[in-house]
Design goal:
Blueprint: H1 20-36, E1 60-63, E2 67-70, E3 75-84, H2 93-96, E4 98-105, E5 111-113, E6 118-120, E7 130-138, E8 144-154, E9 158-159, E10 168-174, H3 180-193
Parallel strand pairs: 2-10
Antiparallel strand pairs: 1-3, 3-7, 4-5, 4-6, 4-8, 8-9, 8-10
Length: about 190
């Protein structure tokens, strides 16, 4: 018993001008429809099954190893310590929608990938508590210097950074491993120069 309305704008931008008017119109229309419709058994289920996060809930402190080296496209398991610095207890991901997530930024700080890794909260995390969660990410396929930005996301709603929380940025050098022929040419050039 769900409805779908398409609202223009990129993820996280649909609630800003000029898209907000379309969103408001869709929400208003659906509320009016719901008020006119008789309650069904599905609508009588308790809403406690899901956690609605107040603004105060979007505060976290993330920590992880400062720098990494990876081969192009290599999968990395990043242990991330997540601390709930908000005044609100977070429920597990299946109830709250909160997950550890990442964005890849280039050397100039531009986002090149925001749909990479996700790691759910396995259990509730009380205010002031912390837990280590492994996040699987995939390094960019081009060599170079990158920034792996770690954040929390409320899936389908918002990134914590967009609500004023801090993120953890990690430097990642993506470089090709020296192969067989690289080693041969290095030895040969050293011998010739001797």
């Amino acid at each position: 018993e769900f409805t779908v309305d398409l609202v223009s704008g990129r993820h996280g931008q649909f609630h800003r001008e000029p898209n907000i008017q379309t969103l408001v119109e869709a929400v208003r229309r659906r509320i009016e429809e719901a008020q006119k419709k008789p309650a069904s058994r599905a609508e009588e289920r308790p809403v406690e099954r899901f956690q609605w996060l107040p603004e105060a809930a979007y505060r976290a402190c993330l920590s992880a190893q400062e720098s990494w080296t990876a081969a192009p496209g290599q999968a990395l398991k990043i242990p991330v310590t997540v601390k709930n610095t908000s005044s609100v207890a977070w429920r597990s991901s299946e109830i709250s929608g909160i997950a550890v997530a990442n964005r890849w930024l280039d050397a100039k700080g531009r986002i090149i990938d925001s749909l990479d890794g996700r790691a759910p909260l396995p259990s509730d995390l009380e205010s002031g508590s912390e837990e280590e969660i492994n996040l699987m990410v995939k390094a960019p396929v081009k060599t170079g210097q990158y920034v792996l930005e770690l954040d929390l996301v409320e899936e389908g709603v918002t990134w914590f950074k967009e609500q004023g929380s801090t993120v953890k940025q990690i430097q990642v050098a993506v470089q090709r491993k020296a192969g067989f022929w690289h080693g041969i040419w290095s030895k040969k050039s050293n011998h010739v120069g001797a």
